[in-house]
Amino acid sequence: MIGATFPGDRTVRLLQFPDPTPGPGEVVLEMKASGMCGSDLKAYRGLSSSIFARSGPTIAGHEPCGIVVEVGPGVESAAVKIGARMMVHHYKGCGGCAECLSGWTQLCGSMSESYGNNAHGGHATYIKVPASTLVRLPDELSYEVGAAISCGTGTAWGALKRIELSGSDTLLVVGQGPVGLAVTQFGVAMGARVIALDIQDSRLEQARAFGADAAVNSSSQDVMEAVLALTAGKGAAKVVETSGTTAGTMDAIRCAGKWGQVAFVGMGASATLDITRQIIIKQLTLKGSWTFSKSWQADCADFVVQRKLPVERIFTHRWSLQQADEAYRLFDTQTTGKAVICM
């Protein structure tokens, strides 16, 4: 089979790999869609790629979605059968600790594999994963939407679950890339008043099209002044930071109102805080939000079905596997929306 790898220096190399064979407890999916994620770019650029160690050429893509085509011995779930449409919760843990049993495999102290990072991912003809990583894709959803829910869109859902968003809240979404735009879409669907923040007018226009009540360009406006004006001087009740920048991190904390909750999704930022004035006196709650659990992934898919959310609108580009190099060259400019590789 063919798989797309990141050798570094902003290139994608298509290599031949043996077709996978499932072992005990494993399944093979024929890939139908594999999402492209902003966190891919560090590996693509040849920088320190992630918290996961790599050895040898590794197939990229940690947003896999496809059809079960082979089932290994010992797979007992009635839902995991030939022809089943599945998303992948893209982590492998020990399987027996509290985190694994609760579906938060990425928090397992023995978590050994992250598909598309240090284990073969979805940018390929097939992927082999433990049956325990699979999450059913509802029939109403396309494979492309399933791929989005498998990381970026699911991560947006997880952040809103972490801050317990309600329809009475004003939500500030810092960054309107693919994850931030998904936060905006979900926030609007949940009934919240959404303020979108970004440095690009084009992304802010897209956020408005997705239902944001207000848009603030942090490159040309005083963010704090704008948010206070939009909230009658109170600040935002809930905030999700998706940019992973120091400026975005500070904007999220400064613009949160008293008793506010802030979820941090974007990785890579650092910040120096005045704990007394910025956290204690405002009674803020700051929460890290690393993707989602298996049950939250399933909940996200069900919410999209129930509310008939047009998640497809988040995609600006669809590519074939053979176009992966061209796809990542454009994606690296960070001027596009969500992109997906379709098999």
Question: What is the fold's blueprint, element by element?
Answer:
Blueprint: E1 2-8, E2 11-16, E3 26-36, H1 40-45, E4 64-71, E5 85-88, E6 91-92, H2 98-101, E7 113-114, E8 126-130, E9 134-136, H3 143-149, H4 152-162, E10 170-174, H5 178-189, E11 193-198, H6 201-209, E12 214-217, H7 223-230, E13 236-241, H8 246-255, E14 256-264, H9 275-280, E15 285-288, H10 294-307, E16 315-319, H11 324-331, E17 338-342
Parallel strand pairs: 10-11, 10-13, 11-12, 13-14, 14-15, 16-17
Antiparallel strand pairs: 1-2, 3-4, 3-8, 3-17, 4-5, 5-9, 6-7
For the structure shown, list the relevant keywords.
343 residues; alpha/beta; Quinone Oxidoreductase, Chain A, domain 1; Rossmann fold; 2 domains; six-stranded parallel sheet; 17 strands; 27% strand
